[in-house]
Target: Transglycosylase domain-containing protein
Amino acid sequence: MAFLAVSVVCGILAAGLLGPAVATGAAAANGSVQFFDSLPSDLKVTPPAQVTRVLASDGSLIATLFTENRTDVPLSQMSMNMRNAIVAIEDYRFYQHGGIDPMGILRALTVDAGGGRQGASTLTQQYVTNVLNEDLVAQGKGSDVVLNGDKTIGDKLREMKLAIGLEQQESKDQILQGYLNIVPFSGNAYGVQAAAQYFFSEDAKDLNLPQAALLAGLVNGPGYYDPTAYPDRAVARRNLVLDAMLEHGYIDKAQHDAAVKAPLALKLNPPRQGCQYAAQAPYFCDFVLHQVENDPAYGATAKDRVQRVTSGGLTIKTTLDPRLQGPAQQQVDATTGPHPDKWGTSLVTVQPGTGKILAMAQNSRELAGQGTDFVTSYNFNVDSADANGNPLGGVGGMQPGSTLKPVTLAAWLDEGKPTNQVVDASRRVYPLNYPWRDTCTKVTGAYDDAEVGQGATNDLQNDEPGWYRPMTVREGIAQSINTATFASAAGLDDFCDIQRAADALGLHKGDKAGDKLNLSTLGNLLGGENVAPLTMANAFATFDADGTYCTPISITEVDDAHGKKIGGQNQSCQANALKPGVAQAATNVLQDVVTKGSGLLIPEKLGVPDAMKTGTNQYNNQTWVVGYTKGLATASFFGDPFNSTARLGRNLTVNGHFYPVVDGAYIAGPQWAQYMQHAYAYYDHGNFDPPPQNLITGAPAPQPPAPPSGGSTALGQPPAAAQPPAVQAPAPKHGGGKG
Model:
């Protein structure tokens, strides 16, 4: 019956607005009915754009992302005040009609004919309009949206037909729920939940009568009745809604009068969109989004994936542990204070044996006015390809200096050589024709004053003069002696084992799309290539996990708007990437850094088993401590994150403290220790697994053999002749010396 009545009405509309002036009403009506019959009746309801939430591991909010601030809620989570208010003011016959209201249309025609203005769209028709518009926006065709005042009769008839079809498919409550979730209340709030939060800092289920009446009044003109800009208009419109609610029996006179007298009482909660407004860990948030937006599981193209993130209502659950993130952020900020002069600090923590990134912090911000004058979009902790939301990405790593020396130690141990074996750390000359043992590639570079003119670097240097003597490999690492690291490399059966150890630890260049480090170049043994702090933390986590390497992960689960799991990053671990005994022996040596070596310069002590390595580049402007307890591995950085050779870390004042020279143990070290004092207790902080004794003591070491031509040699070196000369540009003078 409703359909027949509407057909007659449509005929009348078409006769008056579409047909020739001389056409008869019957003929025009007949033509309009045929036109109406030809229109589609099935509405495809595409879910409207919703807010994506990025969450920490405990469920706390990191950030929200959206094109339209909307969060769908079921009708049961909308207050009855809100449901009654919208029906009363927009479509009081909602529960009586079948999608369109013939009486309303005739009433509107009568009013319009008398020079007035009267709308006739039902809530169902309004819902259809919003669904069609949202579908255009989702397709990137927002410019095709036709505003109500510009709609043709054909547009109106199409919406009527779809409204009738929708009423045959969905219940009244389903339609009301869909309408209240899709309709815009403000440019900052789409749907009733977002509107309740924005205007009143309430959930939709908790809206009281005057609040609900105000929101119901907004849908007629969100800009015109905006209470933040036009409070008098908003109150007048609210009271009109209350009048309608009284008229149609939803409230009594006492409720009406009390609500009319109620103050506006806004409690604004403006939405913050994007990682730059993150409640915690903004750079980690960028990193997470990069992982999603580069994963084909979330869309065929990059554009599809970005759209899904910003409008799909996803819930992205991450590995971030707020118990660690808070102290990490506080610590990096405290290290340099609010005026760091672009000296960067960072901390990143990985859980050994899982690869989970638990904390990621740095002392800059993405926007001005957030507590520091160091503003940058660069992420200090990750590779250049691993940051999202800006064209800059991560800084691509920094020179790790002596924190790379444990790689040579791992190669030494992998060949079954003990940590207590003595090597000739007095040797400073490695000429161009030095006979390195290598099976995979040619070793390049040389250290020899006599061959500088042929491409060699000056004689190998330590940071202090008193360490050019034979010493154990263990002491060489603990004291961070460059010449001991080279002597260890020279004593290997295969120099290529260093590269293999680096690969097993997942070490790669931070600024070259993940390319492997080139450890056949001698200077790079001392940390000459840029590596990201996340990569360094994860490499040391492999030592910590008895040789099990795990790919770093940041996302545990991704759910769609309906709560269905659609993705996440599974743990990907490789047992025996390093032999367990090798990792255990390396840890045993790195514990000496804390108790006997360069770590002694760090005044703060954890009081639980820990291991670490300090590092400093040759300009003293990139300094590190990378260390771990049984359950946490953390890289701490201080320096110039932008790899400038012009800014030296010498005669430098940082946060009121003057440093004649900056070393890894001076700023990055205390930062690591103070942070780990807050963090370690939440995870395993017991004893490390004991190393095999043969990798500690081994057999008695023989005396160093006679050197080949060109200078003295390290222990176990083959006779001269092995490799042809190799020429290379000078490498860094040192990788940290004792730093």
The radius of gyration is 35 Å. The longest strand covers residues 344-350.
